[in-house]
Amino acid sequence: MPEALSVGSSLSLTTITLFLPMVGLTILLFMNEEKDKDAIKWTAFGFTIATFIASLLMAFNFDVNDAGLQMAQRNDWLPQLGISYFVGVDGLSMLMVLLSTIIMPIAVMASFRAGVLEERGRSKLYYIFMLLLEWAMIGVFVVQDLIIFYIFWEVTLVPMYFLIGIWGAENRVYAAVKFFLYTMAGSILMLLAILYVGNAAGTFAVPEIIAGVQSGQLTFVMDGVFSEQSFLFLGFLIAFAIKVPIWPLHSWLPDAHVQAPTAGSVVLAGVLLKMGTYAMIRFNLPMFPEASVTWAPVVAGLGVIGIIYGAWVCYAQTDMKKLVAYSSVSHLGFVVLGIFSLTPQGIQGATIQMISHGISTGGLFLMVGMLYERRHTKLMAAYGGIWKAMPVFGGIGLIISLSSMGLPGLNGFVGEFTILLGAIGSGVLGIGFALVATVGVILAAVYILKMFQAIFMGELDKEENMNLPDLHWQEIAVLVPILLLIFWIGLQPSAWFDMLDATTASLIAGIADFAPEIIVQAGS
Amino acid sequence: MENLAQIAPLIILFPAIGAFINFFWGAKMGEGASAMVGTVASGSSFLVALGLLAYLTGNGFNPAVINPPLLDSWIRIDSVGLDISWQTRVDTLSVSMTLFVTFVGTLIHIYAAGYMHGDPRFSRFFAYLNMFLAFMLILVMGNNLLMMFVGWEGVGLCSYLLISFWWDKPGGEGIANSNAGRKAFIANRVGDFGVLIAIFLSFWAFGTLDYYKPNEIPNPQVSAAHLEEETDSSRVFYSFADEDVEMSQLGMFGQVARYVRIDEAASVSLDNARTILNQARGTGDEQLIAQAEALLETTRAEADANRPQFNIGPATFGIGTLLTLITLFMLLGVTGKSAQIPLFVWLPDAMAGPTPVSALIHAATMVTAGVYMMVRSNIMFHHAELTSIIVALIGATTALVAGFIAIGQFDIKRVLAYSTISQLGFMVAAVGLGAYVAAMFHMITHAFFKALLFLGSGSVIHGMEHGHHHVHLHDADHPEAVTHDSHDDDGFDPQDMRYMGGLREKMPVTYWTYLFGTIALAGIWPFAGFWSKDEILLDAWYVGFEKGLFQGFIVLGLLFAAAAFTAFYMWRQIEMVFHGKPRHEAAEHASESSRSMTIPLVILAFFALFVGFINIPSGIGFPFTFGLEGVLGVHLLGDFLEYSIFAEAFNLLTFNALIAIPALAVGIGGILAARSVYGGGKAIDASGQDPLQADPNTALVWNVAYARMYWDEIYFALIINPYIRIADFLYEVVDWGFLHDYFHDSVLIRGYRSMGDLLARPFDLGIIDGAVNGLGWLAGRIGGGLRLTQTGYVRTYAVALLLGVVAVIILMLLPLI
User: Fold this and answer.
1) Min CA distance, B153 vs chain A (Å)?
2) Residue ranges per domain, chain A?
3) Residue in B with minimal Cα distance to A453
4) Cβ <8 Å between A385 and B312
5) Treating both helix axes as pointing N-terminal to C-terminal, what angle do B369-376 and B122-141 enclose, rounded to 10 degrees?
6) Considering CB atoms only, which of A251, A313, A520 is closest to B730?
7) Burial A231-264 (b: 16+ CB within 10 A, else e)
8) Percent of chain B at pLDDT above 70?
9) What is the pLDDT of residues A4-18, one digit of tens each?
């Protein structure tokens, strides 16, 4: 049985950041739906901003040279079962927390002008669900105990289910149920694997389990493809793969995106999908190093199929939201490829790509939402020449589109480049993986430019598009942080990489103890 | 003077600022101020380029690497030694590029001020032009492959935006314009795929993407003399010839040189051992033979151990295979950006953009980026023999094919577009022959005379539009209302040469400058094209006859034929556009363009005549050079570039009349042939046909050229249509039909239901019924917004989960309270 880790039990910055949305939620509960209409939305927005500031404080306190958990806190919860309230961040968690706290204020502010809230009302419940969602997402990224991780993982489903189900489009119930069922189906396998691992280790604390695996005190048998470790690896992986989603488990995604309200899509694409890829790095790689190496070509292969398939299917779309949804399958295929290249470049690139995708795809969904608010259709054919009617929107739309297709100098390229760099030199994959995946870069241009042209270019000939108002200041305010991040990560991403470097290096070193072939050196 | 190189980042900054100002305030500033900002930004870059030239001449032509102030590295991962910087490189190659790019760029800015006058997005146009310059300068000034790639894709983006600049034209023309832009971007992305792979392979092979490290000098032989004079002790130069320099201190090109040498040394010792063995066998002495065999064995083992091996993932390559792979992938990028077979199809369509764009981006600068990349990587191409052969053949074939297609075109700009593809083919062929200086020389001369021709064609189009406008509206007071490049209802197309004729009298400045450009392009002495084209032909002759390599003969033949076509289609254009009688009332009423447009034409015409003298070959003198070699020296450009080109790859040839005279004859012959076919007012016959089309002997061949050899049709049939069909199939059948509908509804849902029924049995016994009923009631309250009838289970579960959450929160808070 692994040794227990000593971690402080006093209130940490991580806990404060985690529970700030809960404080906001509690306040909202006592507000009046009708009387405090504006106060409700500004309170919700205020608390997402407060959470963002708290996470910034965490980032400033973060020591980039320390590979271990920082700002950690641990309190016994059910000690007899080995379950504890255990939170803390390493480089990976830190960046994912930042992603969540950046996306949430944007999503909340984007809801201010949502017509669907006017139509269907219940805005108090809506903002409560948004804050609940933020709490659960941050929880997923900071908890270090498997059982509590599972709880947070499941909890994220609830607000999203209702956000889609209540404020979604025509087919919302079908989409909400499908979203729920798919994710639940995967989670059951994960729960079994968690209980098995916890039982074997005598603790559910992830750092302790990993330390046990590293020191050899805790062994999951790995001989042949189908053995104990493989099954555990797959138990976790399938749950995460559905969330990402990895091809061919993606068919809930277009439904969920098309039906979700704009802010729901932004959070879903921006953060929720990344829970899957985050969890692969957090749990699969260090807990099951040998199985990770054995299964890497399979998982990375599915990622590569997803890249090409997603991009190809995008071209056949007529609905803008569906196109962006399928583009996520393609973009997240890159992330999966990066992770299972098992190189520092690939994994860091994958993390940067998770953030970049959150920003650019979030931006694309916001754009679609802004068009939808004006014209009440998501069909590309209804537009054309919009750049003339909405010049500011056209310019911003161009930048976000280019960022999504990975133009160098913008955020999307940095992640894709490092992923592909890692993949081509990976010790466990062949060059073919990266060669095929790089074709995805071409296909991305094919579908993004098709959409951009269909919306913005051509003669402005449709009567109802002639007098579309350009962006409102609140809409610009929502897009400005996205633009800033696009250029910041695109031109000077060092600060982001620095946060990951120590964490990734120690993760790779840990796997290399079991499979030295993953260590690759550039230069002859 | 030593610190003068520090100004290098400004060359990028000025146009970037210009673009920024025009993006945000251009529309408010008005045309004059907007054009002024753009032109001043571009001109400032030219001044910086002159400053950098002064730096180089004052410092023995040794390079400088400048870190931009305030900026961190770009992509840096410390733990794996990945560090890609935003460094700029000042060396003779990058400075030659910047000089002509910014000079021609500035002239085109001035021209555009007149050409774009009255356009509703005038300031946006200048913002794009400046943005393009900034990216082009990043491309040539970067000190690593990835920075070059930033510029590479950036200029592609600007090209896309400028080709589709008139995306709002009515009647489907706007869509056609933006389709052309999209085609350009995607064709280039296919090439970019190759560049990316080349970058990945280079990184894993060399551990760096820097061309050279700051202290490195690429050509030690020529720099040795200057090293002695180096006074600044803080700058210690070393070259990759120094054995005691660690491999990791070298940039990728220095490493290539070193690895190749190690590899060759292994081969040499092996050959020596073989020779010894053969000699021993000759003596017949058993003991000697045994000794020699043992020696061969040990030498072979040593050679195998010494030969550099490159591990990329699980694969291992020797240096030869590695360089071949990298250069072949680069070549794919070249065929995209520099419009070579098979990716050249985007360039003719790119003529949908405003004419200054065609001149700047699609003739003088951006399209030469592929050639620049190959010259920059000259050491790799030099050692990749297979690639070099392919490069030479692709270039020469493209030169001929595009030259042939140009003969069958009626659109004045399309002829020039195919001409550009053809001339780029000359440059690419030169690179394939190892004639890197000749490629650069032709790139520079071509930039001047092709920019001149495009701007001249813009002036013609402008004149035609005014003439057309004059006839139809009789409203000469408001010429700014003219819109460019629009196909009017009556079918009149201002770019169609069939409507022109006789413009010589109407537009004299345009005519004479266009004539200069034509003669320069046709390669007639003493114009610029004569000197640069001759040098490429000379190199082909050298590779064929002196070195005895087959590609030299093939390239020589193909390029001679292409040169004949060049002279022919250019003179055909002169006859159709300027000579004879006007064939349309628009041509009848055409008038000369404004000063802002004609002054750049005159300046460029001057250079079209004289720029060839920057690289006068040795072995020719007065009167053929007007004695200019006394002023400019012999091989001025070659000697300058020698500091950037790998010593072994550097070669300057002596003038050879046996090549120059036939080349001149071919040029003159092409002109005379075109004159006999199209001259004397029969450029277009009464039925609106080309004489070659009307003549049954030539009609068949001519029609193939007219149909552009069906390249587009073939691509649609083989690639684009299948791509779209497969996309539809993947989406409708595989994704929606199978995965979405069948798999979800039939397999998943049914499985879930039956599992649910199985689990529900204990519930049916009434044990937990009460609890569930209670939950159901709660679910009804909370999930009231959901009109959920078919799957009550899920709603119940969601609510149960929610309640569970509340319970968990309370439990979690307990220990804290």
Assistant:
1) 7
2) 294-524
3) B178
4) no
5) 10
6) A313
7) bbbbbbbbbbbbbbbbbbbbbbbbbbbbbbbbbb
8) 87
9) 566 777 889 999 999
* A286 neighbors A210 (Cβ within 8 angstroms): yes
Specify the 3-state DSSP secondary structure of B354: coil
What pLDDT score does B225 carry?
Answer: 55
CA distance A249 to A270: 19
B309 strand-pairing partners: B318
For residue B782, the SS3 value is helix
User: Are B174 and A154 within 8 A, CB to CB?
Assistant: no
Residues of chain B with pLDDT under 70: 1, 219-242, 473-490, 756, 758-800, 805, 808-817
Question: Can you tell me the distance from the alpha carbon of A349 to that of A338, in angstroms, rounded to the nearest whole number?
Answer: 7
CB contact under 8 A, B203 and A184: no
Interface mutation vs chain A, best among B70, B158, B168, most A CBs within 10 Å: B168
Nearest CA in chain B to A164: B786
Q: Do A429 and B727 touch (CB under 8 A)?
A: no
Residues of B in contact with A503 (CB under 8 A): none
Distance between CA atoms of B659 and B36, rounded to whole angstroms?
46
ipTM above 0.85, yes or no: yes
Question: What is the DSSP track for B129-195?
Answer: HHHHHHHHHHHHHBSBHHHHHHHHHHHHHHHHHHHTTTTT-TTTHHHHHHHHHHHHHHHHHHHHHHH
- Which of A318, A457, A501, A517 to mutate to test binding with chain B, by most B CBs within 10 Å of its CB? A457
What is chain A's mean pLDDT, rounded? 91
Report helix, strand and coil shares of chain B as percent, to nearest 5.
75, 5, 25
Give pLDDT, residue B761.
59
Q: Which residues contact B628 (CB under 8 A, 6 or more apart)?
A: B613, B616
* DSSP letter (8 states) at residue B709: G
Beta strands B238-239; B216-217: pairing state: parallel
Regions of chain A where pLDDT drops below 70: 1-6, 524
Buried b (16+ CB within 10 A) or exposed e, A496-510: bbbbbbbbbbbbbeb
Q: Which residues of B721-735 are buried (b: 16+ CB within 10 A; e: fewer)?
A: eeeeeebeebbeebb
Report d(CA B399, CA B415) in Å as an integer: 13
How much is the pLDDT for B621? 75
**Rounded Cα gap, residues B263 and A524, in angstroms:** 13
Terminal CA-CA length for chain A: 43
Token pair of B397 as six digits: 């074939």
Q: Which two tokens stand for residue B191?
A: 């090439």
pLDDT tens figures, A216-259: 888 888 887 788 999 999 999 999 999 999 988 898 899 999 99
B453, B571 contact by CB (below 8 A):
no
HSE (side-chain half, CA atoms, 13 Å) at B648: 12
pLDDT score of A4: 56
DSSP letters for A245-267: TPTTS-TTHHHHHHHS-HHHHHH
What is residue A186's predicted lDDT score, i.e. its pLDDT? 82
Task: Please give the structure tokens belonging to residue A359.
Answer: 């920003």
Which residues have CB under 8 Å from B757's CB, separation 6+?
Answer: none
The pLDDT value recorded for residue A5 is: 60
Identify the pLDDT of residue A350.
Answer: 97
Name the residue in chain B with its Cα closest to that of A387: B168
Rounded to an integer, what is the distance from CA A149 to the centroid of its chain? 16
Mutation target for A interface from B128, B332, B794: give the one with most A CBs within 10 A. B794
Min CA distance, A449 vs chain B (Å)?
7
Supply the DSSP symbol for A205: B
Distance from CA of B426 to the nearest CA of A (A): 28
d(CA A158, CA B508): 77
DSSP state of B61: T
